[in-house]
Amino acid sequence: MLEGKVAVVTGAAQGIGYAISEEFAKQGSDVVLTDYNKKVLDVAAEMNEKYNGKITGLILNVMDKNSIKNGLQTIVSDYGKIDYVMNNAGGGVLKPFAELTDEDFDNTINLDLRGTFLCMREEIKLFLKQGYGSIVNTSALGSIYNPGGMGAYNAAKNGIIGMTKAAAIDYADKNIRVNSVAPGLTKTPLNEGGFLEKVLPTVPMKRAETAAEVAKVFVFVASEATFMTGQTVLSDGGVSVGLK
């Protein structure tokens, strides 16, 4: 159990980010759910009624370095520390490569890659002062194996894997761990419908992953895998090792 620990999750208003937040809460952590969508305040308040830890919501824009810096300062002021940060905020456009517009590419890179970079930079500065910390970034199975149409998204998520490795080496001797988790085909509000149905037959386990399932992986990597750093953990129902 993780009583007395403080976890921060970005992109937590719904989907995987919400599930990660709830898994930390189930294990007794104090949790801060952050998102640019003010809905996060309501979902955090509802979660706080269900679990024993102190659970709050915070409006935070991962594409705004001042929002990130001020948000982290607010959290430390309220909670006294941060043990784990899950950089989960992101999204993407599914189009054949040559149909991607400049705006499609820039928006995806800015949200997924630059947003993660800006968060990591401030989190690491905080953890250096604190003397410890664990970061888990959200990558994607599409970084390694994909069904097509993910040019901008893959560029961003591959970049996240690269940044994860770089930061892990830079701070491995500072008691700061940096890893990423690459979910496979996960049932969330963002990918339900035609895409899910199209790709599902390629999954050897013949079903989609639930957000609750992959959330357990994030929490394990953040809190229990204490000799792991610079790694990307796949939770994909076997897709990356073969088709069935």
From TrEMBL:
Entry keywords, A to Z: Oxidoreductase
A Pfam family this chain is assigned to: adh_short_C2
InterPro entries: NAD(P)-bd_dom_sf, Sc_DH/Rdtase_CS, SDR_fam
Family per record: Belongs to the short-chain dehydrogenases/reductases (SDR) family.
Protein name: Short-chain dehydrogenase
